[in-house]
Amino acid sequence: MTARKPSRKASRKSPEVPAEVAVETVAEPAAKTSAAETSAAAAAAPAPAPAATATKAAPAERARKKRADAGPPRPRQAGDGQGARPAPALDGADRGRLLAGAHHAPHDVLGAHPIPGGVLVRALRPFARTVTVLASGVRAELHDDGDGFFSGVLPVPQVPAYRLEVAYDDNTIEVEDPYRFWPAIGELDLHLIGEGRHEELWRALGAEPMVHQGVAGTRFTLWAPNARGVRITGDFNYWDGTGFPMRSLGSTGVWELFLPGVGEGALYKFDICRPDGSHTVRADPMARRTEVPPATASIVTAKHHEWQDADWMAHRGDRPVHEAPFSVYEVHLASWRPGLTYRQLAEQLPAYVKDLGFTHVELMPVSEHPFGGSWGYQVTGFYAPTSRLGTPDDFRFLVDALHRAGIGVIMDWVPAHFPRDDWALAEFDGRPLYEHADPRRAAHPDWGTLEFDYGRTEVRNFLVANATYWCEEFHIDGLRVDAVASMLYLDYSREDGQWSPNEFGGRENLDAVAFLQEMNATVYRRNPGVVTIAEESTAWDGVTRPTDSGGLGFGLKWNMGWMHDSLQYMAKEPVHRKYHHNEMTFSMVYAYSENYVLPISHDEVVHGKQALVTKMPGDWWQRRANHRAYLGFMWAHPGKQLLFMGQEFAQGAEWSEGHGPDWWLLDPSYGASGDHRGVRTLVGDLNAVYGAVPALWQRDTSPEGFSWVDGGAAEDNVFAFLRYDADGSPLLAVSHFSPAVRTDYRLGVPETGTEGWVEVLNTDAARYGGGDVRNEEPLKAEAVPAHGRPSSISLTLPPLATVWFRPA
Questions:
Q1: Over the stretch 688-728, which tens digit does the pLDDT of each residue have?
Q2: Element (H, E) at 53
Q3: Where are the beta strands (DSSP E) in 579-738?
Q4: pLDDT value at position 82?
Q5: CA-derived radius of gyration, the chain
Q6: What H or E segment, with its residue span, contains residue 287?
Q7: What is the pLDDT of residues 418-441, one digit of tens each?
Q8: Long-range contacts for 726-730 (Cβ within 8 Å, ≥24 apart)?
Q9: What region holds the Glycosyl hydrolase family 13 catalytic domain (predicted)?
Q10: Fewer CB atoms < 10 Å away: N or C end of the chain?
């Protein structure tokens, strides 16, 4: 819980913190270490003690007045006779910059430094009464220099291992001095950050609990190249960062400070002095955990989850995704079962998805976001799972549970834009930093957000590292990249005069292209078995072509054209569908131009678009029949498939993030529950047959895996086609989108032997809520030419149904 601000009367009182923390026993500082080395040390070390570096916050004016009332500073006497001599006066410019939070090198002024005749120690401890240096054989009280500064010269030949005893009006605490530590980030990390090539950026920037120079604490690092100064503020210093200025580490724009005694659970932000001297307090862009919105502080965290999914991780890449079954259940975690935490979801979601036979779940964005109504698509915490449902380790637990149930996890990832909240990324250090400097390229015209500057190496690094972070730290199996089209085009949703062309005069955002290529190449290189999926709604060429061939490098692409055309066809009354027949067949013209996913996503069942079953024409029976027939067509069509939650049981109402799916429709006490349970049973059977029949997925991206039997039966509202597996074994899919029963309907079929063709799935079956018009016996192929084939079968087509056949 955030500490409360003390009253003016308590300006010299200390926070209630333990007086003992880990003691440094080595006089010389340790060598500089890389982020990887310090992270490893933290993993092996005990958890840091509670913060003892805190000082009580109160208005500086009050503290200065109390000092003035007490008269000029008086010399201090050391308890053992070894007093600190007066130190040279602090340069006025340094003093002013430190008090203003605008100093770039506080370690040059604060801490211990050898000088002729001893060691100068200077501390900035606002609201303290006294500060005393404790070292082996030395107890020296420092002189009060005013404004919270204390200094003195110790009569010792070299810098000792020392601690500070800080006395307030109500307490005395013993603490480590943050300004005696070397930087806790290595030169290699800084070099890679400067180059924009740090693929494990989360190990170098942000808040990292660790043991540094033998002391437990947290290293804070921040990229803020335009800042004049940066201070750390948090619940460990009562949100007054005056005594915690960070140091600049040179041209990389990185600021750093190691705070001993600050550990997991501490709340923090960065107080940034902007180029104009004003201040802004910001959450950590690299925070791995945040407060629950609407609170906005970042939280120091470390991972402790022990993964149990080694077998899944070892084998998830055994088969290329485009040659594997891939059936996706899209979920909004916060509303799937409202009120459940990550761990509670882990008890229910894997079993539900496994029972339905989906191979993967796709999670709508889980990165932290301030506004729940954005469904996670306006992200402020790109490295933090939303705290609404639990901790990062809780989210790991959910992913682990899904993997142990044999279910892959895809998450929506949103690198296209970010919101303008003044505590987050917008003009982060006083100038455009994460967003483009050109307002025409920074402002997203549709969502009131800001677009990333993909041409800046550090910003691109922030996003590329973020993509692989989710895969490596949370074992995510796929990233569905949101709003790719808005990234690719400079004129996206912009009128003439509102955009500027690229260097070649075109409308392509070449920086975004380079970013997407780098992201895909990095993710695939570092994470075998992971797939990236583009939500790209235009005809951009080569979305799923490899980057070394000039493509964007995605593994799959959402087929927005198929979704739009097929839903438009299904919305027509059957009598009018013959005039729109090509809307169902056109997808096969371009089916092999990319590796496609067929999505019926959340976007299609909100904001007046109606639920899937409600889009269908006719009475309730016909709507359900259309719904079932459409799903049968979708599962048989080349490409992978995705279905949003609630549509698996024909929910009639649009989805709302406020209450989620209408689970009550499945309650046996509800009179029509059988209708909804029948559709859910169908989805389970579709996935079961799909997974067992390689013809439905093995050659999704190969033209040899598909053949029309009859794609032109517009008058009958019939679509008949064959799917083939790698060995040439066929599956015949026939979709009939008319309410009439058609008997003796002849279709040409390939020669397959003498046993005939048998139904393996019929969406009109009684168990699904249909009329149960079936083809009970194997259908013998006859030597009657049809549809360009020498043999054919005669079958009965149920009304508004899809039927699948296989050779007996």
A1: 999 999 999 999 999 999 999 999 999 999 999 999 999 99
A2: none
A3: 596-600, 640-644, 706-713, 718-724, 730-736
A4: 54
A5: 33
A6: none
A7: 999 999 999 999 999 999 999 889
A8: 726/694, 726/698, 726/699, 729/694, 729/695, 729/806, 729/807, 730/695, 730/806, 730/807
A9: 330-670
A10: N
- Cβ–Cβ contacts within 10 Å for residue 607, how many? 9
CA 484, distance to chain mean position in Å, is 16
User: Who contacts 665 (Cβ-Cβ below 8 Å, separation ≥6)?
Assistant: 649, 651, 652, 672, 673, 676
Q: How far apart are the first and last CA of the chain?
A: 67
pLDDT tens readout for residues 93-105? 999 999 999 999 9
What is the C-alpha separation between 345 and 647, in angstroms, rounded? 19
Residue 606: which residues within 8 A CB-CB, separation 6 or more? 654, 655, 656
Q: What is the C-alpha to C-alpha distance for residues 661 and 645, in angstroms, rounded to an integer?
A: 7
- The three-state secondary structure class of 596 is strand
Model confidence band, residue 39 (pLDDT cutoffs 50, 70, 90): very low
What the block records as the tokens of 413 is 């990832």
Main-chain dihedrals φ then ψ at residue 613, nearest 5 degrees: -70, -30
User: pLDDT, tens digit, for every residue of 43-53?
Assistant: 444 344 333 33
Distances (CA, A) of 44 to 38, 178, 211: 10, 22, 9
Residues identified as active-site: 482, 535
Structure confidence at residue 50 (pLDDT): 37
Distance CA 445, CA 460 (A): 22
Quick one: residue 312, left, alpha or beta (phi over 0 = left, psi -120 to 50 = alpha)?
alpha
Q: Which helix (H) or strand (E) holds 112?
A: strand 111-115
Residue 451 has pLDDT above 70, yes or no: yes
Check: pTM over 0.85? Answer yes or no.
Answer: yes
Per DSSP (E only), the strands in 261-405 are 267-273, 279-282, 298-299, 327-331, 360-363, 367-368, 381-385
Pairwise CA distance, residues 60 & 56, whole Å: 11
